[in-house]
Amino acid sequence: xxxxxxxxxxxxxxxxxxxxxxxxxxxxxxxxxxxxxxxxxxxxxxxxxxxxxxxxxxxxxxxxxxxxxxxxxxxxxxxxxxxxxxxxxxxxxxxxxxxxxxxxxxxxxxxxxxxxxxxxxxxxxxxxxxxxxxxxxxxxxxxxxxxxxxxxxxxxxxxxxxxxxxxxxxxxxxxxxxxxxxxxxxxxxxxxxxxxxxxxxxxxxxxxxxxxxxxxxxxxxxxxxxxxxxxxxxxxxxxxxxxxxxxxxxxxxxxxxxxxxxxxxxxxxxxxxxxxxxxxxxxxxxxxxxxxxxxxxxxxxxxxxxxxxxxxxxxxxxxxxxxxxxxxxxxxxxxxxxxxxxxxxxxxxxxxxxxxxxxxxxxxxxxxxxxxxxxxxxxxxxxxxxxxxxxxxxxxxxxxxxxxxxxxxxxxxxxxxxxxxxxxxxxxxxxxxxxxxx
Amino acid sequence: xxxxxxxxxxxxxxxxxxxxxxxxxxxxxxxxxxxxxxxxxxxxxxxxxxxxxxxxxxxxxxxxxxxxxxxxxxxxxxxxxxxxxxxxxxxxxxxxxxxxxxxxxxxxxxxxxxxxxxxxxxxxxxxxxxxxxxxxxxxxxxxxxxxxxxxxxxxxxxxxxxxxxxxxxxxxxxxxxxxxxxxxxxxxxxxxxxxxxxxxxxxxxxxxxxxxxxxxxxxxxxxxxxxxxxxxxxxxxxxxxxxxxxxxxxxxxxxxxxxxxxxxxxxxxxxxxxxxxxxxxxxxxxxxxxxxxxxxxxxxxxxxxxxxxxxxxxxxxxxxxxxxxxxxxxxxxxxxxxxxxxxxxxxxxxxxxxxxxxxxxxxxxxxxxxxxxxxxxxxxxxxxxxxxxxxxxxxxxxxxxxxxxxxxxxxxxxxxxxxxxxxxxxxxxxxxxxxxxx
Lengths: 438, 438
Prior knowledge:
Two copies of one chain form a homodimer.
Chain A: E1 2-6, E2 28-31, E3 37-39, H1 40-51, E4 56-62, H2 66-73, E5 78-82, H3 88-102, E6 110-115, E7 118-120, H4 122-136, E8 142-147, E9 158-161, E10 167-174, H5 179-187, E11 191-200, H6 201-211, H7 217-222, H8 232-235, E12 243-248, E13 252-254, H9 258-264, E14 269-270, E15 273-275, E16 283-286, E17 292-295, E18 300-305, E19 308-313, H10 320-324, E20 333-336, E21 339-347, E22 350-357, E23 365-367, E24 372-379, E25 381-386, E26 389-394, E27 398-401, E28 407-411, E29 415-422, E30 432-434
Parallel strand pairs in A: 1-4, 1-6, 4-5, 8-12, 14-16, 15-17, 16-18
Antiparallel strand pairs in A: 2-3, 6-11, 7-13, 8-11, 9-10, 9-11, 10-12, 18-19, 20-21, 21-22, 22-29, 23-30, 24-27, 24-29, 25-26, 25-28
Helix pairs in contact in A: 1-4, 3-6
């Protein structure tokens, strides 16, 4: 099957593990059978390909997430990059055209759209497969998944089906209600709208041409910034009469806050953490090298990364966003296509960065105007290029990179480097990138 | 007056701010009028010299604390260094002989002994002055301070005075009692023994010669390691009949745990900390550069340093020690005589250190056998010496120090340096120190 995963949102709600460039779906919180951890997007990809080894997964996302996706999933997925945020209809239209014009998917093939970050069982993706089959059999223009509600939530939109059959026409859509109204909907057989649906590719390509003036994917990409922001619900769903919904009653969790995330963690602690025996219902995630000691903590979630430290009563985690928005610090941790970039010290005139390069990867060939850099190779082997000159390097080697010097490194093995940046102005935008023909 | 401050104990109880080389009395937790912070030992020194600007303060301590004392108090105090821990009688004997043989204090002069870490008002040191006056007037061989108890504590020893007069002969000493016994003592007019006492210097010098075979301070220092461990109470106080006690009723707090320390903090937060409005009775000290966000925390103390992060219910802080003892990590933060040494990253084969040198200071001239070092000068000016060769350095300069190379740095201004150590074995004991004649 063809699946488009919508991978959105920069994350304040799971601060300090999510930040402007690491959305929550890239945080490695889920334990695998081999005791290593995987992120939500890795988990979702693994689940999809477990259910359907031939699934073709395309991730629709913004430029800032490309490095993290390549770091976590390699070249196994296609990526459709939105040049800027333009709400869900333009995003889905662009992804549909990407499938048609770039991946050469036929207009008759059915495609499913899913968010990249629900916490679900494998059976959810079996249901997505059925959704795709339903869309292929052409009974409706749009086929949605409706989640059987487990409580009268105020956080989700509701779908009112015509009948209580497994697959039914949709009677009506309802916006997020208050609890009392939600109870009423549920008594009428309503389902949660989880933003999962399938359609024949031609349906959305046609909708896109109806609503936007463009020729093909490349033209749409070029004029993307000029498109009106409009949601898929508003542009398509509300104007479409031929919609059906399929019930799904398996586990489904939208892990948007620490409170919800802590519910789905396999272990109470990740990283260097000690809980005393008076702690209860407390989860701790520590990405720092130093230990966290928790004594007598009740109903808390505690998370530490190089961006900051959160100590939070679970009930309060819904209210984090406004506090986190006040932290305007630079991002201290980033997954790059070549590995991990972790700021370990900032002081006036200097920034120190811990760099981990993956074997076989390389940085872009680049220079800085306003800062010198010193690389100390801590482990591994590779080749640095300084103003076109190549040099083999290994542990203990020191490379001085004066401002203006073009430089890059190719890692033969996994490599660790400490980079010290010195300059009166240290700014991520102080970077010129050059083509390399090494 | 002459005061000997006993500055003891490596600290697990105020972890992660105290560690094997930073005892609790060196943590800067107390706000001064100018909004900067001072440590307990700085506060105590300021209080003593406010009460008596001519006070001569000698700190009796171990070698590991000398750098921190010089860093925080400069050359304003004398330091009597115990070569190793040998309990309070040898420590006080050594300090007394130091006053006599090194500082040339007369045997007729009275001397007060105080712990370096009580949280008190200035009036406490006025009382210490009175204690010294009483000791001078020769009514008793030992004059103790007795704190008026505020509750039947199980944590202190009790002094039973003969009368309820302000100064009275001591009838009896009592070990730490249970609460019921403490109540009984208090109903008999008992006082807390806070370990504060005064005597004529000759008294202790004679006691030392009675109990230890030595000639003078230098001889005692040389044989210090061979001395029997014995407490001052056991060696002297219990065998002395001519003891008086003076009552003190001002504020006195023994801030040995985070629970007690949090009671005497001026502000609820120190450092980069945000508390939401659902936090209550919570104190947070953050020595890291990254922010701490606390939401809905009740009755907690939270402390973060480069050694670790503590999240602790206040009632549990009494039980920290056994948990902290399990952390066998290296000390990440140290105050040196020349400034601050702060480990910012450890990985296999490398350690990265943030160094702050004070203007006018210098490191010892030294070398390492098993590691290379790279210094990147971040700010300030100074002179490095590499194998005897001097070189002026300033921001942006990089100094490569291969293993075996003798090196040091003299700071002309305050300087900041990032030091990257690379080697298969990185060990604090890998250090040879050389005389320098620069």
